[in-house]
Amino acid sequence: MDSADLELETKCENALNLVAESRKRFGKLCIEYDQKMLLMENKLLNLQVETVSNYRFKPKNTIPDIDENGSKELDDLFVEISEKEQRLQDVMRKLKNTHEVIMQLDADVIGKKLRAPLNADTMLAQAKASKLLKP
Q1: Do 85 and 126 belong together in one domain?
Q2: Does the reported pTM lie above 0.90?
Q3: Which residues, including other chains, have CB under 8 Å from residue 9's CB and lie 6 or more apart?
């Protein structure tokens, strides 16, 4: 390579460095601009929200007063319904527990044997019955 090529190469390298530096600066400026723009938008939105929230609207039609006795009756009805629903859930839970106990008692073979009367005649009858059933 001769000196002209080296000189051209250094000029190109310098130009590329300038482009890279200007891109960095421009990128930083763009980021700062976006941040400032978002900050100003947020300030404007907050200002608009505060302005709208301070404004008192006048209704076109007046809202009638609610009868407090009617609402009290409705509240009493809701309380009564919730109490009955709770009682119903309690009954369903007790029924489920009773059903589980009955299923356990049906499956309890040892308990059945213990509940059977223990005398010689019944034991002899059971032994004969079991021998007759077995081939």
Answers
A1: yes
A2: no
A3: 1
Q: Indicate if 82 and 108 belong to the same structural domain.
A: yes
- Local mean pLDDT, 10-residue blocks, the chain (135 residues): 80 86 85 88 75 69 70 86 95 93 81 72 81 67
- Least Cα distance to 11 among 3, 22, 24 occurs for 3
Q: Which amino acid is at 96?
A: K
Distance, CA of 23 to CA of 36 (rounded, Å): 20
Tell me the three state secondary structure of residue 64. Answer: coil
User: Same structural domain for residues 80 and 119?
Assistant: yes
Give the pair of three-digit tokens for residue 78.
């809701």
**Residue 66 falls within a domain, yes or no?**
no
